[in-house]
């Protein structure tokens, strides 16, 4: 039986329309345009393309975009000073440090310099801790988008067995926490996991965030399982695919995200939504203070 396609593009369109309206209402009320600040140590062209696409997405929902581009010779101190500049700038509401940083930088120290109230990637230790305590504030966008897809398509999580393949700090790790917070029973698999196929076969919900083409195939799935594929891999012919072999998985799964058109478009909308959330958290407080003066 063919799977239900979990259409991320359709959900992203709905989110964009809703966000544009909420941004316009916010601007009219607070005379401030929510602004995303991106800090980028120049590395490769694909990262630059991603940053430009973020700028376009920001402008489409009525937000501003500020870009702090550092040369690859910049020191750790210069990087942290850029982070401090955006953190202290009242016009910047949400900040992204484009990851991964070149190896010479201490990423954890850089992230520690962020104002956690502007940490729209949810990577600051305070935000990571709040998610782990099931009191989420700003959370990583990619897994939050995956959870929204599950919610939107009415996929039950409480009491279900979930397998998450990948344990990165920005995708696999927080996705396992979010699934756990939603009362699923979660098994986390990674590079050193043995018998991956056996674990996947028992799962009602399979999440992949490993960056490996063909890691999960249809014959590994429990019939009717839900599959969320966060992989974004480039094939030799330059086309994009996920970690899951879509054709074979589609025949066995109950529901599946395509790549492209699944988790990716939703990620950007969650990110922009976090910018507005951060703006509301800071500027509404300021307005309240002014009202009391
Ligand atoms: P991302 O930031 O997109 O999550 P990373 O490269 O940081 O990607 O992390 C990849 C994750 O995938 C790691 O946790 C790694 O252990 C896991 N992984 C990579 N290859 C395999 C594999 N063959 N089987 C299971 N897990 C894998």
UniProtKB/TrEMBL annotation:
<keyword id="KW-0378">Hydrolase</keyword>
<keyword id="KW-0560">Oxidoreductase</keyword>
<dbReference type="Pfam" id="PF00763">
    <property type="entry name" value="THF_DHG_CYH"/>
</dbReference>
<dbReference type="GO" id="GO:0035999">
    <property type="term" value="P:tetrahydrofolate interconversion"/>
</dbReference>
<keyword id="KW-0368">Histidine biosynthesis</keyword>
<dbReference type="InterPro" id="IPR046346">
    <property type="entry name" value="Aminoacid_DH-like_N_sf"/>
</dbReference>
<protein>
    <recommendedName>
        <fullName>Bifunctional protein FolD</fullName>
        <ecNumber>1.5.1.5</ecNumber>
        <ecNumber>3.5.4.9</ecNumber>
    </recommendedName>
</protein>
<dbReference type="GO" id="GO:0006164">
    <property type="term" value="P:purine nucleotide biosynthetic process"/>
</dbReference>
<keyword id="KW-0511">Multifunctional enzyme</keyword>
<keyword id="KW-0028">Amino-acid biosynthesis</keyword>
<dbReference type="InterPro" id="IPR000672">
    <property type="entry name" value="THF_DH/CycHdrlase"/>
</dbReference>
<feature type="binding site">
    <location>
        <begin position="166"/>
        <end position="168"/>
    </location>
    <ligand>
        <name>NADP(+)</name>
    </ligand>
</feature>
<dbReference type="InterPro" id="IPR020631">
    <property type="entry name" value="THF_DH/CycHdrlase_NAD-bd_dom"/>
</dbReference>
<dbReference type="GO" id="GO:0009086">
    <property type="term" value="P:methionine biosynthetic process"/>
</dbReference>
<dbReference type="InterPro" id="IPR036291">
    <property type="entry name" value="NAD(P)-bd_dom_sf"/>
</dbReference>
<keyword id="KW-0658">Purine biosynthesis</keyword>
<keyword id="KW-0554">One-carbon metabolism</keyword>
<dbReference type="GO" id="GO:0004477">
    <property type="term" value="F:methenyltetrahydrofolate cyclohydrolase activity"/>
</dbReference>
<comment type="pathway">
    <text>One-carbon metabolism; tetrahydrofolate interconversion.</text>
</comment>
<feature type="domain" description="Tetrahydrofolate dehydrogenase/cyclohydrolase NAD(P)-binding">
    <location>
        <begin position="140"/>
        <end position="280"/>
    </location>
</feature>
<dbReference type="InterPro" id="IPR020630">
    <property type="entry name" value="THF_DH/CycHdrlase_cat_dom"/>
</dbReference>
<keyword id="KW-0521">NADP</keyword>
<feature type="binding site">
    <location>
        <position position="232"/>
    </location>
    <ligand>
        <name>NADP(+)</name>
    </ligand>
</feature>
<comment type="function">
    <text>Catalyzes the oxidation of 5,10-methylenetetrahydrofolate to 5,10-methenyltetrahydrofolate and then the hydrolysis of 5,10-methenyltetrahydrofolate to 10-formyltetrahydrofolate.</text>
</comment>
<dbReference type="Pfam" id="PF02882">
    <property type="entry name" value="THF_DHG_CYH_C"/>
</dbReference>
<dbReference type="GO" id="GO:0005829">
    <property type="term" value="C:cytosol"/>
</dbReference>
<comment type="similarity">
    <text>Belongs to the tetrahydrofolate dehydrogenase/cyclohydrolase family.</text>
</comment>
<dbReference type="GO" id="GO:0004488">
    <property type="term" value="F:methylenetetrahydrofolate dehydrogenase (NADP+) activity"/>
</dbReference>
<dbReference type="GO" id="GO:0000105">
    <property type="term" value="P:L-histidine biosynthetic process"/>
</dbReference>
<keyword id="KW-0486">Methionine biosynthesis</keyword>
<comment type="subunit">
    <text>Homodimer.</text>
</comment>
<feature type="domain" description="Tetrahydrofolate dehydrogenase/cyclohydrolase catalytic">
    <location>
        <begin position="6"/>
        <end position="121"/>
    </location>
</feature>
